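Incident log, support desk, overnight shift.

02:14 A customer reports that sequence design results differ from what the structure should imply. Their input is reproduced verbatim below. On-call engineer (initials T.W.) acknowledged and began investigating.
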């Protein structure tokens, strides 16, 4: 049943610069595509800002990078699009190649450091930066749909960063999943919970199910080229209809 995820959650009203918003933030109607690639663990470690962040490896030497395109059609902060580039991590604990990832999948609870998180509206940028320390910036994020495919183009000031294209798969009801995100604000690690209810969901391990194309010159694309991404995804997720709750950011002692 739609809307069950929002029941029993207290929201608080806030106002900034004449704009009202609520926490936790409810996302009522969304589409997302996610492609997970492997990358060089040693090179990704150099991008992690805190020593307790340990990349989760699929196998020794190869960690995981998640690329997710979000189309938020109805939210507490109005419609907007977002693109997440995140490294799956174990925070302040040792990870075991392969086993840690399988354990998180079994629990449906994933932990990740959000490396880049561009958005298309100022209120989404401001709230993410000020309340969570997310590395948000304004960008152009557009979706295209064609026969059997859904694509997302990410660019900034006319410079292409990347294109992510995924297959439209037959879907079924998914299971509620929790994502624990980590970010850094004023040098301090901050964590936040995102709970997602995939109303329509499909998953594939076919390496041809998604295609990632990096831009030629943008600095973000250049860094992604340096971390030696795998040729194809190790997992692809297609969620044409989801609901989600973004809870408030917390200090680590408040976990």
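02:41 Re-run completed on a clean worker. Output:
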């Amino acid at each position: 049943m739609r809307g069950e995820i929002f029941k029993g959650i207290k929201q608080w009203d806030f106002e900034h610069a004449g704009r009202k918003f609520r926490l936790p933030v409810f996302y009522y109607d969304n589409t997302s595509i996610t492609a997970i690639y492997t990358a060089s663990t040693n090179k990704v470690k150099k991008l992690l800002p805190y020593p307790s962040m340990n990349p989760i490896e699929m196998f020794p030497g190869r960690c995981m990078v998640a690329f997710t395109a979000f189309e938020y059609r109805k939210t507490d902060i109005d419609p907007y699009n977002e693109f997440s580039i995140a490294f799956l991590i174990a925070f302040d604990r040792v990870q075991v190649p392969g086993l840690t990832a399988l354990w998180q999948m079994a629990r449906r609870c994933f932990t990740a450091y959000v490396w880049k998180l561009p958005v298309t509206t100022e209120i989404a940028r401001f709230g993410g930066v000020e309340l969570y320390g997310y590395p948000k910036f304004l960008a152009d994020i557009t979706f295209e749909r064609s026969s059997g495919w859904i694509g997302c183009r990410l660019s900034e000031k006319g410079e292409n960063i990347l294109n992510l294209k995924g297959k439209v798969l037959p879907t079924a009801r998914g299971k509620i999943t929790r994502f624990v995100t980590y970010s850094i604000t004023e040098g301090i690690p901050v964590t936040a919970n995102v709970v997602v209810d995939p109303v329509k969901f499909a998953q594939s391990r076919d390496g041809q199910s998604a295609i990632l194309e990096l831009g030629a010159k943008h600095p973000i694309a250049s860094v992604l080229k340096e971390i030696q991404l795998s040729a194809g995804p190790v997992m692809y997720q297609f969620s044409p209809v989801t609901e989600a709750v973004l809870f408030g950011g917390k200090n680590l002692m408040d976990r």
